[in-house]
Specification:
With 410 residues, the protein is an alpha/beta fold. The chain has 17 helices and eleven strands.
């Protein structure tokens, strides 16, 4: 039985994943495998649904457990099973999933799966070759192993929050749970490596992904600068120590902007040519990077007068053609008409059972033989419970009905 509405490439065809994870890192990581042909079953609870099921945007701005575009996108191409893991009889069902699966994924606070009797030690007794993927805030060991939280807290703990904003204001922070979008890239790579290890040795293993430690890789240069030079990084707004002008500049229209960055003298001369070499640009105070940095506020104001007269895409194309780094600040709506994203078919439309037609995004890379693609819509809560238990786990209709009556299946 293939994944629902399966059209994705078959790199991982035949791979079976029991996905007990929730919110961001675990579900995104496992969606990689769904998009490349794996059969992924998302196991969750109706009595304590995934936080993202209650997160906007909602279809038609109408809240509902199955109406979150956020949740649907993170779980595209998966089957949905509703199982109350706290029910005394749920453990037996979960163990059958573990026995069935090649990969088991969970992202609860460290210790939760052990208390449910479903930790790695138990899982490998059931299925010695299982790849058991655990993703937590700070890993399975250490004094803060059991500290709960979300990527929004980790963004601060990893140091991102204090880096984003203007130097004379409080930190603005990153958008959303930033670390949730970093760690799945590590997660997918290490699960793929573990599968290769199992293919070579026949052995399973436990993957312990600390989201904090994964995130710290993205501030490594700043940590190195502090270690070597004693410099503590701070907020610079849209500016850079290495370039000027370096900012987002207002363009024609409401709330329209174009980012322009000048790092070299060649960039600066090209920018002058595109602007028609106005007299102010030829002033000696702007001739060098150090001079432009010293007079950066006035430079930004003068450059803004030029950009304000042009639509943002016109400014971008003229500057890029001249070799000046520049880019439009696009709205979410504009992404769907972006010619590059359209050419690569980045967004795919799937018919979700509750939401209806809904866009899903592809991943950034394409493999030449198995390019991958969104594999189908995300599941409604418990949408495939009956068919999954019947066809994957071997339950008969009478057994399934009894589990429903007892409240094991929600």
């Amino acid at each position: 039985m293939s994944s629902p509405d399966r059209v994705g490439s078959d790199l991982f065809e035949g791979l079976k994943i029991a996905d007990f994870s929730w919110v961001g890192v675990g579900p995104i990581t496992m969606r990689y495998f769904a998009d490349y042909g794996a059969t992924v079953v998302r196991i969750e609870s109706a009595s304590r649904p995934d936080t993202l099921r209650r997160a906007p945007p909602y279809k038609d701005d109408e809240a509902g457990i199955d109406r979150s575009g956020f949740f649907a996108n993170f779980n595209g191409g998966k089957y949905g099973v509703a199982l109350d893991l706290k029910h005394p009889r749920a453990r037996a069902v979960a163990e059958r999933f573990i026995a069935w699966a090649d990969v088991v994924a969970e992202s609860f606070t460290a210790g939760v799966m052990e208390r449910l009797g479903l930790g790695y030690d138990r899982a490998r007794k059931i299925n010695p070759g299982v790849i058991y993927f655990s993703s937590t805030n700070q890993g399975q060991t250490g004094p803060y192993r059991a500290q709960p939280g979300f990527g929004t807290q980790l963004s601060s703990l990893a140091g991102f929050t204090q880096l984003v904003g203007w130097p004379d204001r409080d930190p603005a922070g990153t958008y959303g749970a930033y670390t949730d979008f970093i760690n799945p890239r590590y997660g997918a790579a290490v699960v793929a490596a573990a599968l290769e290890y199992r293919r070579a040795t026949g052995k399973g293993l436990h993957i312990d992904l600390s989201q904090l430690e994964g995130a710290l890789q993205f501030v490594a240069p700043l940590m190195l600068d502090y270690t070597v030079n004693g410099r503590t990084a701070g907020r610079q707004g849209n500016r850079s120590r290495r370039g000027a002008p370096h900012n987002a500049y207002p363009c024609k229209g409401h709330d329209r902007w174009c980012v322009i960055t000048v790092f070299t003298d060649a960039h600066w001369l090209a920018l002058r040519r595109v602007m028609g070499d106005p007299s102010w640009a030829a002033e000696s105070r702007f001739a060098t990077l150090l001079g432009r940095k010293r007079n950066e506020q006035e430079l930004d104001a003068l450059l803004s007068q030029w950009t304000a007269a042009m639509p943002p895409h016109e400014a971008m194309h003229r500057l890029q053609k001249a070799g000046v780094p520049a880019g439009v600040v696009q709205s979410s709506e504009e992404l769907f008409s972006d010619p590059q994203l359209k050419a690569r078919e980045h967004f795919r439309l799937w018919d979700h059972a509750e939401i209806g037609p809904h866009h899903y995004d592809s991943f950034a890379f394409r493999l030449s033989e198995t390019p991958g693609s969104p594999a189908g819509p995300g599941p409604c809560l418990g949408q495939h419970t009956g068919v999954v238990l019947r066809e994957f786990l071997g339950y008969d209709d009478e057994e399934i009905a009894q589990l429903v009556i007892e409240g094991v299946l929600e």
